Every structure is written in structure tokens, then in C-alpha cells.
Amino acid sequence: MKQIIHRIGLLWTMDDETRSNGPRCGADAMRAVGAMKDVAIAIDEEGVIVDVGAEKAICDLADAQTQFIDAEGGFVAPGLVDPHTHLVHGGSREKELPLRLAGASYLDILREGGGILNTIRETTAYSEDVLFAQAKTSLERMQRFGVTTVEAKTGYSSSLAVELKQLRVAKRLAESSGVNLVHTAMPAHAVPKELPAGREAYIEELVSMLPHLQAAGAEFADVFVEEGVFSVDEGRHILEAAKALGMKTKIHADEMVPIGGAQLAAELGATSADHLLASTDEGLLRMAEAGVMAVCLPGTSFYLQKPAARARFMLDEAKLGVAIASDYNPGSCPSENFGLTMSLALLTLKMRPEEVFMAATRNAACAIARGHVAGVIRPGRNADIVIYTAANPEYVLTHFGISHVREVFVKGRRIL
Ligand code: NIG
Ligand code: FE
């Protein structure tokens, strides 16, 4: 046996005896965290979990070469999965906050040519190496909070060349960082102020980028469906084209105005719909029927000073599968602190600690089609594991704003 993590006080496996790979939907299922006390985990040479069980039985698997990792009675859980980030971008947008505090809305700033359009200008201007250095710093910050899998979107561009540049940076990070990355194409993120060839031609240009982005490694396509950005019909058109190519889909849905983003996600059978601050009951119920994961972004509602998504309705009434994500980006959530995201899920989404961890592990993995490889601790799975300094998850979540992570492993390799 290569490694044994032992003296684990409390382990949440996020698993059960059915060994299914799907999401957990509704409050009851999301609270079933597969708790085990006083256990150890055995990991082989390939970084795969061999066995999870009582301390003594697992320690008996040791040989002369086994490396013991002492959890010191701490809490242990699967590596965290951040299923919605805008990781690769140029520059920052701190100058927008005073404008918002003075009364301008996020969409007002975008309409005036700022906001996302500002980051598009910077991302276009910066070299690939500069973008890589900035994103690498961000990814390292994420790792410190126990994140082992990250979704990264393109979308700060107005041309295919800049979309591909962002994708190349994200792929370079995947190769060099040890963190698992999942790539999403989001050319439909903002509409330029001037459209010389007209709006329809612009939408077709976005559609024409998709096969190139897919060939370059994008697995998902995402659209910002919002009043004043992309309409439901435009979103449908772009995402139908993505589906025809065999891409999976996501939607930035109902962030500000409930124009039907949740309903569109249900209609398309999207893997997830994200934000959902303004979604109607009907939209959320349709998502549940269609098996679409609801991805809540509590850092974004906090930073935009908006009421959080209705996670209790999602969990208790609609019985949705709920995941959480940082939405790390320069405009609506400039923070890579996924621990804070989780604390805000507790405090503003009013989720229970069990639900928060399920939303940040197993369900987050399902939100990026990684339910079969990430988000649970189970024999046969990659050893993506976080050892916390605290003895219980409630302490991790309530003592907020700092990292409680002692050690992080990806495929058995220590990355922190
Ligand atoms: O998920 N809402 C649209 N897109 C991002 C924000 C991007 C930005 O402001 O740079 C989001 O919040
Ligand atoms: Fe986003």
C-alpha cells in the first residue's frame, strides 16, 4: 500500500452502499453524507482509493514502504469541486464597486460599455503568458481552500482567436497544476456595443466558434441568458447548435430578471442552470423534472448585494439537486475563497452543513459531468481528498473567511 491516511476523527464520504454516481436531490438525500468515525483510507500507487474502514483493519494493510499520513483526529472529506468559474481573464474591476454603491446596477455598467466588456478589452490585450500567470495565482488560491476540480469558462473575448487563447491558458493550467480542470466555451457572454454586421450575424458568428472551441477541448457551452444580454431565443439557438455538436450545456439563468432561463435549461436538458436568483417556482420545478442541476453562487449574490437564491425552495419543495460554486470572476465575485462560498451557502442560502458539503462535492461534480470520477470517497475512486485542521464540518463552515485546510491530495498526490 502506497499511502494510508489514518487517525481520521470524522469522515464524510458523500457515498452510500448503492455506489451510484448520480447527484443527490432534495434536502433529505443531500443530508445523507455517509459519515464514518475513527477510520483510515488506503491509497495505492496509482493514487486510487483501495479501502476505507476501521483504523486497525486499514493499518494492517501497510507494508514497509507505506507512507502514513496522520489526520490527527481531524475532519476529512472529498476534494472540493468548483463547478462555475471565470478563471482565465485579464485585469480586475475594483473601480466598479463605488459606481454600484452610488446606485448604478451591474447591468447599467455593462450597458455603458464597462463590466464584462471592460474585461474583454483587457483579456484581448494581454499576452498568453500574462493571462497564465494571473490565472495560476488564482488557481493556487483555490487550492488552499481544498479545491481539487475546477470548471473554467472562456467568454472574455469578441473573437475566436481570444476565445482560443483563454482555452489554451486553461489547458496549460490543467497540465501544470495538478488540479483537475473542466473546460466550458462561453463566447456568448456579452454583446458588444457596436454590431457592424447586425445582431443576427453576431449570433451566427458565436455559433460558428463552437466547433473550434470544442476541438480545442471545450466540453460544455454556456450562455448568459439575461435581459439586455442574450434572449431566451438566442440562448436556445446557440445551445441547440452546441448540442448538435455533442457538447453539454449550461446556462447563466435568471441572475437578475426571470426571463425564462430556468425553463430553457429544462427544455434543453442542460447539465446545469446557474445563478437562479430571480427564478420563478415554475422554472425551478421544471428544472427538477428535467434533472437539471441548480448551481447556486452565494458569493455573487453577496458581492452584488442581492437576495440569495431560494435554495430552501429548491431543496424542500422542488427537490432539486443543488450544487454551489464560487463564480470567481473580476466583476460579480472577485474571490477565489471557496471556503467563503461554502460559509455563505450556510448563512445566506440557509443550507445545512451536510447540504453545503454535498453541494460542494458530489453534486458539484455532477454539475460538470464528473459524478463518476469526483466528489465521493469510495474504493476505486481517485484519492482527491481534503484533511481539515478542524474536527468537525460545522466549525469549518462557521469560523468563516479563513482556510481550515491542512492537506489536499489529488489522485493521491499531495498538492498542499
Ligand atoms: O456569472 N453574469 C455573467 N457573468 C459572470 C460575471 C462576469 C463578469 O462580471 O466579469 C457571472 O456573474
Ligand atoms: Fe458566471
Automatic annotation (TrEMBL):
One of its GO terms (molecular function) is imidazolonepropionase activity. Fe(3+) binds at residues 84, 86, 252, 327. It comes from the Bacteria. It is found in: Cytoplasm. Zn(2+) binds at residues 84, 86, 252, 327. Residues 75-413 form the Amidohydrolase-related domain. Its EC number is 3.5.2.7. N-formimidoyl-L-glutamate binds at residues 156, 329, 331. It holds the Pfam family Amidohydro_1. Binds 1 zinc or iron ion per subunit. It is an enzyme of class 3 (hydrolase). InterPro entries: Amidohydro-rel, HutI, Metal-dep_hydrolase_composite, Metal_Hydrolase. Pathway: Amino-acid degradation; L-histidine degradation into L-glutamate; N-formimidoyl-L-glutamate from L-histidine: step 3/3. 4-imidazolone-5-propanoate binds at residues 93, 156, 189, 255, 332. Keywords: Cytoplasm, Histidine metabolism, Hydrolase, Iron, Metal-binding, Zinc. It catalyses: 4-imidazolone-5-propanoate + H2O = N-formimidoyl-L-glutamate. The keyword Transcription does not apply. Its cofactor is Zn(2+); Fe(3+). Catalyzes the hydrolytic cleavage of the carbon-nitrogen bond in imidazolone-5-propanoate to yield N-formimidoyl-L-glutamate. It is the third step in the universal histidine degradation pathway. NCBIfam families: hutI. Belongs to the metallo-dependent hydrolases superfamily. HutI family. HAMAP family: HutI (MF_00372). This is Imidazolonepropionase. It comes from Alicyclobacillus fastidiosus.
